[in-house]
Amino acid sequence: MNKIFTYLKVHNQLCLFCLAVLFFLWGCKKDTESAQQVYDPNQPIELSRFLPDSGGVGTQLVIEGNNFGSDTSLIRVFINNKRAPLVGASSSALYVLVPSRANIGPVRVEVGKGDQAQEIISKTAFKYVFMPAVSTLVGFTDKDGKTAIVDGTFDKAQFEEPYWMTFDQHKNIYLLEQRRGLRFIDMAKKEVKTLFRTGKGMDRPRTLSFSPTWDTLYVTNDQWDERGLSTAALTPASGFTEWNSLIYNKTTNGGASHPQTGDFFYNSYEKGEVFKWNKENNASELLFRVDDNNWEFNIQFAPSGDFAYIVVVNQHYILKSRFNRQTRKLEAPVHFVGGRGRAGHNDGVGVDARFDQPHQGAFDENDNFYVADIFNHCIRKITPQGVVSTFAGRPRSAGYADGALRDAQFDQPYGIIYDSTTGTFYVADLINRRIRAISIE
User: What is 6-128's CATH number?
Assistant: First the structure.
């Protein structure tokens, strides 16, 4: 990632300061005992213990022993074969910072150069603790807080209103910018480019969904003409730069392809309707209505395909609909979590939980659902049992800050996707004009 954890930099600076003070005080004491602390290559180096025995990146580690000397240019420390930054040294103690992703392994100290070098390895292992954190993947604003749609490498690319995302089979990101068009984030090349801009009937794209075979990218389009474009299809033939009209209906603000069968389902906001599109005869079948008129919602399938969540954005709750594999249809949904028409922030179970315009969500390997909660400015986690908690961000506190999960800030997060291979979430942070990452470091 091109911007790695601002909070860790600050944390490490504080660590260095504190360690420097401690080392200075400790050194003053030792100066009364010995004028010099020189490594003696004729004597063995000793490692008696290290404290603490576990921690994450940036943890202050004190290694106690003997015959280290105080010349830091002669000393090298490794944790599970990863070089650890050395802050200070004396003959009987070393002060280091735990490196990123050290995992579990012994502490190794090397002292000296050439044929005078020695090493010693601890008998016990340091246990590395992975620390989930929020960082910025790509996007920035200028000194006046302004931005634009700019293609290019990650250090140059900009966004205006990142909104909804999906992965392709190579884990590249396709991103809708609200009322602006479709962007492509090449994760291997670390580049961003625009695939199409809105216009010609595609004026308000709302959701993206790939077919299981990756040969069709469905884009829903929200407009008020029943003869207007509801859903378009893009294919690899044009590099997903040209869309073809597929379905005509009005007020479609959500659509999703079933992850195994490829059946496509979409909605109509005006009457809260859910449809199944039949590819064979290019016709749509009304399945059911969701509660009431003017219910803005989207449809999001679990990876298993056994069910879909219907996220009702403007009424602040989430429904659950089972997928019937015999009929290959979604069944009438049931109220799952959140208070119908009751905005707020509250962690809890089922209908006791509160959201403030939940939007796109992402499933992890255990069917936990992480949803971007727009006006709570945070990411919420929903277990399969309906337990809702705050996963990342500061509830009701908009801002921009990378850092630990609950220290970080978002400003109207709209979209979220999850890469199970790396354990990384990506968030479309609309007002901050950035794509954020939530990862295990």
Answer: 2.60.40.10
